[in-house]
């Protein structure tokens, strides 16, 4: 299947050509400025977030309970795989 866009006809009038060129340049300029503004906001926001994280005091590590018990452990199922034996999954 062949995909082709319809051909864009350029205007023949010189003034219309100049206006379309100026309109295209203006659209490209607006997109460029918008992209730079978004990039600047993201950069400043990232720097502020990094500064807040650096100056914020860190949390103390979790302490064992008063009875001296170990902290809670996540449980799960596991399978011991021995080397030298093929394993079917």
From TrEMBL:
Keywords: Membrane, Transmembrane, Transmembrane helix. The chain crosses the membrane at residues 20-52. It comes from the Bacteria. This is Uncharacterized protein.
